[in-house]
Amino acid sequence: MLFKWVDYCEKYEDEIESWMDDDTRRFSSDSIKEDHEYYILSDEYENNINYFCKVIFDGEEIIAVIIILRGDEYPVHVNPIIVNPKYRNKGYGTKILFELINNIFEITGFEEKVFHAVIFGDNNASIRTFEKVGFVLAGTHIDGDCGYWVYPDSELENCRNYYKDYII
């Protein structure tokens, strides 16, 4: 693998939280720390069986953080991916997604071939990144603010059926 993937913990909080500028908050939550605490305390993601927050290193440098959810009724949900501002627009998000798809078992301990993401419609950087990896738009949320994306494209109809109450 190209990158080192480690579990998110307090040790990385300050650096990652420093990346959360207004633009990043517009497309994700206000705080990875708060998201992490929410999922850790949630019954659905108890004991990290279905929840993973990974800090991604290139050498000794933290280049990104990613949240990965696994549900009983849906495949792997990926998002957000927040790339260190120093490394944005340099292809790291694409490389991270490729590595996740191709090494999901090594990263999370479970095998899966289908991935979903929800991306705000005006988050052009994320849309380009996911498209480069092969994600396709399954539909737009009924509120019009975000799209449901799926990988591989052979899962398009399954994704549309799963989210049928939420997409147009």
Q: How would a textbook summarize the main sheet? A: 7 strands, mixed
Q: If classified by CATH, what would the architecture be? A: 3-Layer(aba) Sandwich
Computed over alpha carbons, the radius of gyration is 15 Å
Question: How many structural domains in the coordinates?
Answer: 1
How far apart lie the N and C ends?
38 Å
The secondary structure category is alpha+beta
Write the CATH homologous superfamily. Answer: Gcn5-related N-acetyltransferase (GNAT)
Strand residue content: 25-35%
> Strand tally, please?
7
List keywords for this structure.
alpha+beta, 34% helix, Aminopeptidase, 7 strands, 168 residues, 7 helices
What does this structure look like?
The protein is α+β, with helices and mostly antiparallel strands. It has a single domain (4-162), classed as Aminopeptidase (3-Layer(aba) Sandwich). It contains seven helices and seven strands; from the N terminus they run βαααβββααβαββα. It has helices spanning 10-17, 22-27, 32-41, 92-102, 104-108, 124-133, 156-162, and strands at residues 4-7, 51-58, 61-70, 76-83, 115-120, 136-140, 146-151. A seven-stranded mixed sheet has the order 1-2-3-4-5-7-6, with helices on both faces. A hairpin with a 5-residue loop joins strand 3 and strand 4. The radius of gyration is 15 Å and the shape is globular. The N and C termini lie far apart (38 Å). The mean pLDDT is 86.
